[in-house]
Description:
Pathway: Amino-acid biosynthesis; L-methionine biosynthesis via de novo pathway; L-homoserine from L-aspartate: step 2/3; Amino-acid biosynthesis; L-threonine biosynthesis; L-threonine from L-aspartate: step 2/5. By secondary structure, the chain is of the alpha/beta class. About 30% of the residues lie in helices and about 20% in strands. It has 9 helices and 15 strands. The strands form 3 sheets. Strands 10-11-9-12-15-14-13 form a 7-stranded mixed beta sheet. The chain has a 6-stranded parallel beta sheet with strand order 5-2-1-6-7-8, with helices on both faces. Strands 3-4 form a two-stranded antiparallel ribbon. The two termini are about 25 Å apart. NADP nicotinamide-adenine-dinucleotide phosphate (NAP) binds near residues 51, 112, 117 and 135.
Amino acid sequence: MSTFTHHHNGLLLKTPLSGRSRVSVSKSRPGPFTVRMSLQETGPSVAVVGVTGAVGQEFLSVLQDRDFPFRSIKMLASKRSAGQNLKFLGENYVVEELTHDSFDGVEIALFSAGGSISKEFGPVAVERGTIVVDNSSAFRMQNDVPLVVPEVNPEAMEGIKVGNGKGALIANPNCSTIICLMAVTPLHRHSKVKRMVVSTYQAASGAGAAAMRELELQTQEVLEGKPPTTKIFSRQYAFNLFSHNSAVLSNGYNEEEMKLVKETRKIWSDNDVKVTATCIRVPVMRAHAESINLQFENQLDEDTAREILKKAPGLVVIDDRTANNFPTPLEVSNKDDVAVGRIRRDVSQEGNYGLDIFVCGDQIRKGAALNAVQIAEMLI
Ligand SMILES: NC(=O)c1ccc[n+]([C@@H]2O[C@H](COP(=O)([O-])OP(=O)(O)OC[C@H]3O[C@@H](n4cnc5c(N)ncnc54)[C@H](OP(=O)(O)O)[C@@H]3O)[C@@H](O)[C@H]2O)c1
């Protein structure tokens, strides 16, 4: 049965992006944190690439929260951050500049430094025998690279293990895809999805630490009657919303929307499933929301759907019609589970062939770092 796991709630609003301070803050807490045994001789040697970023900092939080065993951990970022001190699980680390020699002796590397860095350094790491779990879109659609959500298609990475002496690439899907498929896959397994229409409401955190800072700054500026600083999105974000900032392609879809289409097909190994998406950035600090309309091959009534979702791992159902209480991004921020609600029969479809659901998930956590660390756990 799913439980709603809480993490770092005290820091939710004040410093939503300061994973760095979160890591050291939690270390100064007394109690179980002082006796954590993650540093283990038998664990793998790990590297975090892009450790100073929004996802990189969340990697550290998730590794800590899940007691991920490691023999050693290397903190890698750009030249800009090299030399910075970082405290993690009571140890002091110095951030090192990522170079082609960074991966000697590294068994698992968690990458979140952007697509171009992954393209350059991913193959270098694999060459040295490292298993790379990559958060960028660089390798996701490559045929020989598994694209994995552990609750959905763990079989895709079968045979890839630390200790095999062989490097490999594994791709973490796009955050909107992960959050969507966490909720839809259990229903798909039961009644086979024929068509899926997704509308997203995506948070600032999906665009990294700088975007989160800009939303905070703009909110202050607008409230003070000043013109908003528009460096990251080139338009006002606070008290506004706009079409996702990824490039618009020749078919009129933006890249984020086409990721939902293509990645769903790959993860489900189903080239026939029809998917369409509209992706929108909303001025929410952290955690994405998605409205999802489904058409099934076999009938599925809403009560059965609700029961299926209640039993699904990594999901929590928040679906209280009387109290008008359904998932919100705030509620899922800093939490592991994806929340699903508004589970209802689509009145525009005959019989029980259609459902509407509303899903919220912390995309830095399950949409990125948590999913990657779960993949890493399956490697050992
Ligand atoms: N945010 C999300 O929810 C999310 C979800 C899924 C996937 N991702 C993917 O994860 C990646 C990072 O996203 P983010 O949101 O964490 O971005 P971010 O906050 O902007 O962080 C970027 C990280 O990459 C590092 N970096 C930049 N250039 C580098 C270089 N030349 N060499 C080594 N490191 C370099 C940065 O180090 P410095 O501090 O030294 O600049 C920083 O640690 C992207 O590929 C993104 O698409 C993000």
